[in-house]
């Protein structure tokens, strides 16, 4: 996505490619509402030129210049403008003008602010025909008040406080400046948004009866604190929160700079993307358009990051459990036990214009919920969390073995009749395509979803044993083994090739795609089958050099710049790499890891986007996909799963074991993890060597724990 994003919690700022908040799709958003659509500075009626922008999580700095007529050796940008932004409990902006002209200057600085309170769907182009209520607007020397009474009955407000005060002119604030050479002028802005009718500080003290729900910190009655103090406090809170996050999560040390930089970028991006909805930090899917709770995305991102921290997995499971389907609602595609696809909290959702309250149109979120619940329990041995999740695990298990199987053949399908015609992770309308380039007729049984089903049944079996039900665990394991045989019988095309799906007539959709690679991650194949699939995935029509293409080059529907038919999604490749390691294909897994790391070198901020183009690897790095979310949760979490793949790492709290079978490529002769979560504690782990010949050192293991690895004659 061409623009800049700052985010903390559920408040985020999205600016355009010139880092401007000046209409279009830019804005300050909270809970699917655009609370600020314009906040723009004009110098003598002109927009300053943006020369450079730097962002980091919730803060940014920009350098702008105001053009002057060139005289002698004076720069055309002799009025330098330094802008600093912070998004925290409120949004802050500080602007400093410096006169680098050699003569005094008389300038008019104008601040223009506006809010349309548009629902996120409207910002993205939803075709709403009804007329929207007007926005009440008031400008004073100290700022702006904007209020909106939505059609959903919810009052929303935006308050813009400005220091120093300006002069009101035509609804804007005007500052008439006289600047000597090298003199400067500073103005600061604080924007607070929320729901309810917000009284002014002279009307009601903070915490008094009737105080509305506000995202920002309400000032206490009495003199208002200066904005520079409030901004400094906000910056300190953000820095303290980041430091606490870094101390609570796993760090990596390695001689490969690409790996370390990608790890640290992902660690900070997950903090930025996380939103606490009452049970701890949950990774929202991605910004700007999907900074909300997603079933599939949040679950996969949390699983990828389990090596980093169990906190995301716990919070994601608990939060999704609260919204688990209880009844039948065709509009929202809800059914008992289903895990939601997407939750929206804006005006259109509350009006019932869109079904996202929540919307349950996902075939894979429910088995992924079971996979994460089992993996978290296995990794941490948390009896309290497992007990709290048990009724939700039982409900999800009932759905994947009941209503989720539309025709009783043992596979999970979707009928293609809902809001989303495709309901797997490749949910674009044309993602389930035949070799002839036509759309496969529904109902659709996706190959990777059947792999998730195998892993979910195995996970449920391990949970049953954890709860003291070994017989039931055995029954679920047997069901999983039977499903594995069915996958091999119905989806295998021979020579390591697997069908993308079964169509409505139960015919294999023989298109070559990345989807079957997830069978490796799920352990849903026998060893020989997994070996053959791994070899096929590494051929040049699927492996671009940067990652596995979503659709093989040469297929009739192949398009390297499409969303799902030839592009590369880092999380897709990372899951496949983890699966290859599970099947003992460490060399291939390491090649995939290297491909992702090579791609990251050419990406802004060393940040993996949602996806990039599927052209072969070459000079300049991968071509960007124009509207990819960045940062995006399951892309941000990729480096943690890549390291898990290189180590082939498993943590088993019940057995008190850390099991690993590392493969270290030539470019990574050693790797150290510090603060790795394991059961009730955290440990340090160092691996050194080459290939399979490696030495492992562990320290800080919980009492009674051991490190287990295959006997390959290693030291």
Radius of gyration: 27 Å
The description of the largest β-sheet is: 9 strands, antiparallel
The dominant shape is globular
Number of domains: 3
Looking at the structure, the CATH topology of the largest domain is Glycosyltransferase
* Helix run count: 16
Query: What portion of the residues fall into strands of 2 or more residues?
Result: 15-25%
Q: Give the N-to-C terminal Cα separation.
A: 48 Å
Strand element count: 32
Low-confidence stretches: 201-213, 217-221
Average residue-wise pLDDT? 94
Q: Structural class from helices and strands?
A: alpha+beta
CATH architecture of the largest domain: Alpha/alpha barrel
CATH top level of the largest domain is Mainly Alpha
Helix content: 25-40%
Domain Mannosylglycerate hydrolase MGH1-like glycoside hydrolase: 297-599
Region (Disordered): 196-225
Protein name: Amylo-alpha-1,6-glucosidase
InterPro entries: 6-hairpin_glycosidase_sf, 6hp_glycosidase-like_sf, GDE_N_bis, MGH1-like_GH
